[in-house]
Amino acid sequence: MTLREANADRERRDLVTRQVMDESRLIRFVAGPDGSVVPDLARKLPGRGLWVAADRVSVQTAAKKNLFSGAAKARLTVQPDLADQVEMLIARRCLQQLGLARREGVLISGFEKSAAAIRAGRAAWLIEAADGSADGRGKLLALARHQATRVCGVFTADDLSLALGLENAIHAVLLSGGRADRWTDEVERMAGFRPLTPEGWRRDFPGDGAGGEVEAAPGEGAGRVSDARGSAP
Questions:
Q1: CB within 8 Å of 14: residues ≥ 6 apart
Q2: 150 and 187 in contact (C-beta within 8 Å)?
Q3: Backbone angles phi, psi at 111, to 5 degrees
Q4: Is 74 exposed, middle or buried (0-12, 13-18, 19+ CB in 10 A)?
Q5: In terms of Cα–Cα distance, which of 153, 141, 225, 160 is closest to 188?
Q6: CA terminus-to-terminus distance, the chain
Q7: Which of 37, 104, 168, 213 could cysteine-pair with 226, CB 3.0–4.6 Å?
Q8: What is the largest distance, in Å, between two alpha-carbon atoms of the chain?
Q9: Model confidence, pTM
């Protein structure tokens, strides 16, 4: 069971729209000891939760209007770069999930192995370095499109190499299963803050998540798209 499924019956009110949503679609914040607003992506920090939809515009709006103070019934200080902080924390959690996946043996790296996993229908996600070569990427994107494998191109080769403990990590595949579900929870939150693939990839992989949308694989149903949220331990 993914955290999204586990939290399906836990709803909170978004400070910006005042809509009641599943926790999986929101970012939790708390008041820090110094009266600052602190992101709590793991949802473990003590204190009353202050919930905002998991996208950049919502977090920026909540910060600009300091909606946190009203919800907390206390004067709170909001850093002007709060949305950037949240994005950085989500990115870190995504990379941590990839490191765990490699240690568990459910992440494959390298062009040939990645291509084989996609062809075999074992790949949940193709993860491509944003600054990798267009030739190899194009071939894997074509395979991914044919197999309805989802694609992420958020991270650079340096980001992936550090997370995976490899040299020059360019191509990787996350195999279907529980770890892929947890990765999906995290990376879908990332989609609210930056496109999951660079702008220039659209011609190679239409509908791949550029602009914040995430393409649902057949049978997943509509709605698992632009502001789909999630959390992972």
A1: 20, 21, 26, 51, 52, 53, 58
A2: no
A3: -65, -55
A4: exposed
A5: 225
A6: 13
A7: 213
A8: 56
A9: 0.80
Provide CB contacts within 8 A for 220, sequence distance 6+: none
- Block means of pLDDT (10 residues each) for the chain, 233 residues, are 52 90 90 96 94 96 95 93 97 96 97 97 97 92 94 96 95 97 92 90 53 32 30 33
| Long-range pairs of 25-32 with CB within 8 A, sequence gap ≥ 24 | 25/53, 25/54, 25/227, 25/228, 25/229, 26/51, 26/52, 26/53, 26/54, 26/229, 27/51, 27/52, 27/53, 27/54, 27/59, 27/86, 27/189, 27/229, 29/68, 31/68, 31/72, 31/74, 31/76
**Both structure tokens of 56:** 């950049």
Within 10 angstroms of residue 206's Cβ, the number of other Cβ atoms is 10
Look at the block and give the residue holding tokens 């044919």.
Answer: 146
Q: Which amino acid is at 92?
A: R
The first and second tokens of residue 110, run together, are 């390298």
Residue 116 token pair = 């084989």
